[in-house]
Amino acid sequence: MNQSFLDYYNLQPLFMAIHSALCSIMPEGLAIFLEGLVVAVLILIMYAVLAIILIYMERKVCAKFQCRIGPNRVGGKGGLLQVPADVLKILTKEIIELKNSDHFLYALAPFLVIMASILTFSCLPWNKGGEILHMNIGIFFVLAASSIGVLGILLAGWSSNSKYTIIGAVRSGAMIISYELSIGLTVLTMVMMSGTMDIQQIVASQADGWNIFKGHIVAIAAFIIFLIAGNAEANRGPFDLAEAEQELTAGYHTEYSGMHFGFFYLAEYLNLFITSGIATTLFLGGWMPFHIAGLDGFNAVMDYIPGVIWFVGKTFFIVFLLMWIRWTFPRLRIDQVLTLEWKYLMPASLLILLLMTVCKVFGLVF
Amino acid sequence: MSNFSEYIKGYTSGIKSLLIGMRTSMKVFCQKNVTEQYPENRHTTLHIPERHRGRLVMIHDAENHHHCIACGLCQMACPNGTIKVVSEMQEDEEGKKKKVLVKYEYNLGSCMFCQLCTNACPHNAIEFVNDFENAVFEKEKLVMTLNHEGSTLAK
Fold it and tell me: What is the pTM of this model?
């Protein structure tokens, strides 16, 4: 199959040119340091902008699911400036130090949560050659880094020295650690299908068809389980019992204020984006354009759309799916959440792993 | 074995009910919004349900006639003492004495829109209208006289 289309928008040559230009005027160490700084600032800006877009989208989608309009006054038509205004407000709020809290851990917890989120965020494949953290065990790194977040949640709950926060944190810890099993097993399924753990190569292996089409029934089942478990990982949707307002005020971040609370809030929305991004990478072909075998004209048009648009578009599609789930189902109790994972999802994902092995061995995947 | 079949049954019925839930919420998603953009649509698309009780009025026809016979049933029906019917006895040509309405006072500030007065009225002389923008700065303005100037009982 002709894959030259993948090179139109390849960012690799551009980055190499910038790097060599910088190296010609300064030592390589300094050049790499400067590039690292620029990339870090870019990640943070992208992180903040995406969070604003996601919060706005959540409020609008939620409103539509309840036949409402949503934010519509601030910033002219459609309330576009509502979320930036909220951000400005939260930036000016005081960060309160509690008297009986463990001050060091209390201050550390939001940074752990946001660090885990940013680390996983950096692994997303935005475009060909557009990855930020690239390693041959990429997807493994994503699983490992996302687990740091639960540490931050547990620390936040414990160090706040309050009943609400500790109950929320323990619930969240039990839930996230359980659902990591399903995520791990479904990711393993797709790793087996692609034959690599490198995120860029997982995407590249889908050039001749997205995994969800190549793996047919097995991949679709894995996709659904990944979405459910990923939703639980992000503490959202029917699984938001860690911050169940009615019982626990706000769960593990009850005692936080100002930007420390903002970090938890940001991380929650970006974890939604990251879950969707990883799902896109594993199942919907990352930045690969949509192709229908045999329609060459259609395929050529699709190729001219840059990869980053494909990636962001597909990711937002999955974000919408997750919001649909969130605004449909009522919250589960902790015993129901754990029953769902240990009695239903985990056996199902083991079965899917087995089925995928059988399919792969007998060549039943395309 | 029955345990296992129950497990599978639970699985399928669970998935089915989840799908029904998602279908329902998607239907709602595609519906028209029920929210009104109030101050903007005040003169255009404002929709108030027909039976909304905004304010009590006395029905007057084109010749400035009303149907109130000053029986005072509405005044007695009102739980809040909102209505005050002032009447006087008049003698007509045949020498019959008859109660005639002088002033129908209605205090919007103490009305709770229960509609007991309109239900009590034997001649359907009063009714509630949709007019809901009743905010004023002084509470004296809330005391209204419902019978129009110079109106008389319809024959």
Answer: 0.79
